[in-house]
Write a structure and sequence with these properties.
3 domains; mainly alpha
Length: about 750
């Protein structure tokens, strides 16, 4: 009968789950909308930063050139104030335009009047604001005050620069007002040309740096990955040496020499000879039941495979040595290339140089060859592990067959013993029945009655012993049937293993020969490629040395790049602190989920324990019912045969009442256990449902946090040239991560 309270609770729980699902969906949509808005705002901020960066770079380059010119012609810091005083002092005027108009013989007022009046500073600010808004395409991540302060600082720098340039023109006009000779003009032209050339060189270096910095970072990442792979390969080779010795002819102290192909073939021949001699000399000796055939062949194949693995490891070691040399050379080239890339002058020429292209191609080809050889070595090891596992399974099957045979033998002996005991008990029971029948005919004497009582006790004891023996015999017979089934399964397994071993022997031997031949060919090709690469590398060493002088000339730019790297590392450390905090929260959630899973497992074990107790109680009930039936039959028979024995009848009735009471108690316990099991099953289902919901929320939070982490890392990598944007993007994503964790925590609390 269904529990109405449980149904109501389940309905309420389902209704709450639906409400929570709707709330979680709403939170998810809000989070997605916030991410989209954040992405749009980040894009607008990036565009604004690019515009500001371009304007700032241009003004900085122009100011640097003008300051150099001022220093050369002797203009002081007070030139700005004097120029502003010369411009008329009325309002805010442009000193450079006033100076040009003065040189042309006109006045600033006349030009303003002819052009419709001078443009006010407020109008200029409005125009700048409109231009900035057009570039931003909508809202910006900056406040109005920050934007105005930035525009104001740029305008102040422009005014100062124009004033200094006007002062330069005044100085030049003052020096050459009367008579400007040709030599002075040539010098001015040379200075102007030099300034323009320096500006072009600076712009070229800036563009080259921005272009090559990403490529240099990628090359650095690839070199780091290669170093990690080489470290892993060296560690694996060290483990292989520790397990089997060295393959160069020298042995490690305390370890045997590593097997080679010749040693493997010799060992296989010796094993085959021993196997043939054993078959010839011991042909009359029967094999042990359940032992798989062809064990010698499996060991031979394993020995051959070990030899092949040793050869492959030697080849891999040789290739790794070659790769280490090439990696060292490429590292030197990469260092030089990084210095050239930081200098941003000869990056393209180095990348397109024949030495670099040839070395890079040679390195990539050798890396591919080494990966192929490593993959072949791993496949050979996997196959050898498969052979060893099959051998272990065969040996385990043989052991199970032997155990089954032993169980069969013990079961046969036990059956014989039970048959003998049963015969003895039946014979004793027949004798007792004859004596009871004889005594029942002599009921006139008291001695006969006492003898009858004793005989009845003996009959009851013998019946009890017979029942116990019958129960044990049934159990032994069940074990005997199970042993027969195990024996048949073991024999079928042995036959299938023998057949599979025979089939695999032929196919795997041919495949191994083909693979070994192919690997040898690949190794020869790799060695030829390595020799060619070494020869070409020696030829190109002279070309590499030519770049050393150029590298030293641009070492100053490398220091600036190091400072930028330090700033980025500081930002990365801050972002890693936030990520570590997220990871710690993730670990706390995982530990809570683990505790919840352990609690569910404990409840499941408790339910299983009660279930087993219920089954045992049910079996005990059936056994007691059988005993009750047997006791009832014995009691009826005793009433028919010994009606005059009242004490025996009372004792039997007492035993019958006790048995009935015990059966009632067992049935009550059985009902209680059934109710307990049902309650525990319902509780386990509810807790499993809540666990699944918590797991889904945790997985979603982890995936979202991982995605945000990747975005942060990408922004940090891309933020080398725009430091301000990287910091602001990290702040926005940190806020988004905190909001997301708050939503997930709220959802977990609700669940």
């Amino acid at each position: 009968m269904a529990d109405p309270e449980g149904g109501t609770a389940r309905a309420v729980l389902e209704f709450k789950n639906r409400q929570l699902a709707g709330q979680l969906e709403t939170r998810r949509r809000e989070t997605e909308d916030a991410e989209r808005r954040l992405s749009r705002a980040t894009g607008r901020g990036e565009r604004y930063e690019r515009v500001v960066g371009v304007v700032t770079n241009e003004w900085n380059s122009a100011r640097a050139a003008i300051e150099a010119l001022c220093a050369r012609v002797g203009v002081r810091e007070s030139a700005k104030a004097s120029t502003e005083d010369a411009s008329g002092g009325a309002g805010h005027g442009d000193a450079f335009i006033a100076r040009l108009l003065k040189s042309a013989g006109e006045t600033l007022v006349g030009v303003d009047g002819g052009a419709g009046g001078k443009r006010k500073r407020g109008d200029d600010d409005d125009a700048v604001k409109e231009t900035v808004e057009e570039l931003e395409d909508g809202a910006s991540t900056f406040d109005d005050e920050e934007r105005e302060a930035l525009v104001r600082s740029l305008r102040d720098k422009a005014d100062e620069t124009k004033a200094r340039l006007a002062a330069v023109i005044d100085v030049i006009d003052g020096k050459f007002a009367n008579d400007v000779d040709a030599e002075a003009k040539k010098r001015i032209d040379a200075l102007e040309a030099s300034r323009m050339k320096l500006k072009r060189d600076y712009d070229a270096l800036s563009h080259a740096y921005l272009r090559d910095s990403g490529k240099v970072k990628e090359l650095q990442g690839e070199l780091d990955e290669l170093e990690v792979q080489l470290a892993v390969t060296r560690r694996r080779l060290a483990i292989a040496k520790a397990n089997g010795g060295d393959d160069t002819g020298e042995t490690i102290e305390g370890l045997p020499k590593m097997a080679t192909a010749e040693d493997a073939r010799a060992a296989g021949a010796q094993i085959e000879a021993k196997a043939a001699a054993g078959d010839k000399g011991g042909a009359d000796t029967p094999g042990r039941p359940g032992t798989p055939a062809g064990a010698q062949v499996s060991s031979t194949e394993l020995t051959k495979l070990k030899g092949d693995v040793a050869e492959l490891e030697a080849k891999v070691k040789h290739n790794e040595k070659t790769i280490n040399d090439l990696t060292k050379e490429k590292t030197d080239m990469a260092i030089k290339l990084r210095a050239l890339g930081d200098g941003q002058n000869f990056g393209r020429s180095v990348e397109t140089s024949p030495a670099y292209v040839a070395l890079n191609a040679r390195y990539e080809s050798l890396k591919i060859e080494n990966e192929k050889l490593n993959e072949d070595l791993r496949s050979m090891r996997r196959r050898m592990d498969g052979f060893m596992q099959e051998s272990i399974r065969d040996r385990q099957a043989a052991e199970r067959g032997e155990a089954a045979i032993k169980r069969l033998s013990s079961a046969d002996a036990r059956a014989d013993e039970l048959d003998a005991r049963l015969t003895h008990v039946v014979k004793a029971r027949d004798e007792l029945e004859v004596r009871v029948r004889a005594l029942s005919e002599k009921q006139d004497t008291s001695a006969a009655k006492e003898e009858q009582i004793k005989m009845l006790d003996i009959v009851q004891k013998e019946n009890k012993v017979l029942k116990d023996e019958n129960t044990r015999f049934k159990e032994s017979y069940a074990l005997f049937d199970q042993a027969k089934i195990d024996k048949a399964a073991a024999e079928a397994r042995v036959k299938s293993l023998e057949q599979s071993a025979t089939e695999k022997k032929t196919s795997k031997a041919a495949d191994l020969e083909k693979e070994i031949t192919a690997l040898k060919e690949k190794l020869a090709a790799a060695e030829a490629t390595a020799a060619t690469a070494n020869a070409a590398l020696e030829e190109k060493q002279a070309e590499v040395m030519a770049f050393v002088e150029e590298i030293e000339a641009i070492s100053g730019a490398y220091d600036e790049a190091q400072e930028q790297s330090n700033r980025l590392l500081g930002r990365i450390a801050k972002s890693e602190e936030a990520q570590n905090k997220a990871v710690s929260e993730k670990l706390v959630a995982q530990s809570a989920a683990k505790k919840f899973e352990d609690e569910c497992e404990r409840i499941s074990e408790t339910a299983a324990y009660y279930k087993r107790d219920l089954e045992n109680a049910y079996a005990r009930t059936q056994e007691l019912e059988g005993q009750l039936a047997e006791a009832t039959e014995a009691f009826t028979k005793m009433q028919q045969e010994t009606s005059s024995n009242a004490e025996v009848t009372d004792r039997s009735k007492a035993q019958l009442s006790a048995m009935e009471k015990q059966i009632v108690d067992v049935r009550a316990k059985l009902n209680s256990s059934e109710q307990t099991v049902a309650t525990l099953m319902q509780r386990s289902e509810r807790e499993l449902a809540s666990l699944e919901a918590e797991k889904a929320a945790r997985v979603k939070a982890e995936s979202t946090a991982q995605a945000l982490k990747k975005k942060c890392e990408r922004l940090v990598r891309e933020g080398g040239a725009t430091d301000l944007q990287a910091v602001k993007s990290l702040l926005w994503y940190r806020i988004a991560i905190n909001i997301l964790f708050l939503h997930v925590k709220h959802a977990n609390d609700a669940v």
